[in-house]
Amino acid sequence: MTVATPSDTALAGASGDRRPVYLDHAATAPVDPRVAEEVLTYMSYEFGNAGSRTHGYGQMAKERVNRARQEVAAVVSASPDEVIFTSGATESNNLAILGLAAHGEATGKRHIISTQIEHKAVLEPLEVLRGRGFEVELLAPTEGGWVAPEAVAAALRPDTLLVSVMAVNNETGVVQPIEEIASLLEGHDAFLHVDAAQAFGKLIAPFQTKRIDLLSVSGHKIGAPKGIGALITRRRGFKRPPLQPLMYGGGQERGLRPGTLPVPLIAALGTASTLALREANQRAASAEAIKQGLIKALLPLGAIINGDPERTVPTTLNVSIPGVDSEAAIVALKDVVAVSNGSACTSQSYEPSHVLLAARLPRERIEGALRFSWGPATTEVPVQLIAERLKGLVRG
Q: Does residue 2 sit in helix, strand or coil?
């Protein structure tokens, strides 16, 4: 990994076409070439339907799907038959949350604990359940952007059905204390759901705990194409989480997610998972070097890191620079780097970040927040040129 100084090559894309350096991996990552090759194989050659049992084409597809289950499960120490393939983390979140509603209604457990900093893919399904009579309690984060385990413990009740806490915040990169929350839930019947869209394949140890009942996975954050993900549904003893499907017709994926399996995308997620697990340490070291290079270049501008820097992943940096508005900064940097000022799902609305608002940060700091995020495909970052452009805005 090279932290580059301003040059023509620093502005070049992977093919030398002078595109801005892509630093918005938290929104989506480029497809790994090794994964792309796998996709093409299962689109153009091994194109069988995994549900076809009468010929070799179908058998080959089924075998690849089964192997992908093993590859995804290995990242989180789950059983392959606990992996349900979905279209991505948003669908997985919906299935995990809305899929428990019938069980909650039948047992009288209508209390749900989550946080104010969740992705909209969690917050909006929770609002649906609130409309159905469930009591949804959203915990505030600390100023550092993480939710204290003690807050979860204090909110826990006998009628708590579900605790849903993201693993890594998509805007700040702050790691939530999942292991501690899982530990305090020992002995309680509440289901623990973790939205791991930003963490799967990047953090390994936190997901080894068997107390996580439901875990949402997104493929396009780790080098697989968009449109594929998974929901890990861990057993407790011999019992699976009592989920009900959101769609019907076909019975695939243990009846929880019907429809013809997208074998090329499933194969891609399997390969991307294997690569992420195999290269985890190398990727983390390279990402941390990029992060420290950015911090070193931006601190002289008075940059303030949003989110406890001791708790953030190596692949994300959310900063505010006094006197610099994020929209102006994005425009000033558009030919240098591609960055964002929040979640891709809400970036068109230009609304203040609900994540930073929940952390009670000053308004001007929120309005100036920039999110830089990178991945294994990031080799050069023109940190000095970034700093020079932003410094020009401060002078202006």
A: strand
Would you state the torsion angle of the CA atoms of residues 306, 198, 169, 122, taken in this order, to the nearest 10 degrees? Answer: 150
Two tokens, residue 158: 């006998």
Boundaries of every domain in the chain:
2-23+280-395, 34-277
Nearby residues of 389 by Cβ (< 8 Å), 6 or more positions away = 329, 332, 333, 336
Cβ–Cβ under 8 Å, residues 376 and 25: no
What DSSP state is assigned to residue 338? Answer: E
The model's confidence at residue 18, banded by pLDDT at 50, 70 and 90, is: confident
pLDDT in tens, 153-164: 999 999 999 999
Structure tokens at 78: 């789950």
Beta carbons of 286 and 355 less than 8 angstroms apart: no
In the chain, count H helices and then E strands.
13, 14
* CA distance readout (Å), 340 to 166, 374, 381: 20, 12, 15
Provide CB contacts within 8 A for 384, sequence distance 6+. 5, 6, 297
How far, rounded to the nearest angstrom, does the alpha carbon of residue 286 sit from its chain's CA centroid?
A: 19
How far apart are the C-alpha atoms of 340 and 382, rounded to whole Å? 16
Tokens for 192, please give them.
């623990």
| Active site amino acids | 345
According to CATH, the topology of domain 2-23+280-395 is Aspartate Aminotransferase, domain 1 (3.90.1150)
User: CA 149 to CA 312: how far, in whole Å?
Assistant: 17
Could you give the 3-state DSSP secondary structure of residue 129?
Answer: helix
Q: What are phi and psi of 284, to 5 degrees?
A: -65, -40
Q: Provide the residue type at 99 as one letter.
A: G
CATH number of 34-277: 3.40.640.10
State pLDDT tens for residues 55-73: 999 999 999 999 999 999 9
Please give the DSSP secondary-structure letter assigned to residue 20: P
Strand 229-233, strand 214-218: pairing: antiparallel
Amino acid at 288: E
Instruction: Give tens-digit pLDDT for 159-182.
Output: 999 999 999 999 999 999 999 999
pLDDT in tens, 268-288: 999 999 999 999 999 999 999
Beta bridge partners of 162: 112, 191
Does this model's pTM top 0.90? My answer is: yes
- Residue appearing with tokens 């909650």: 104
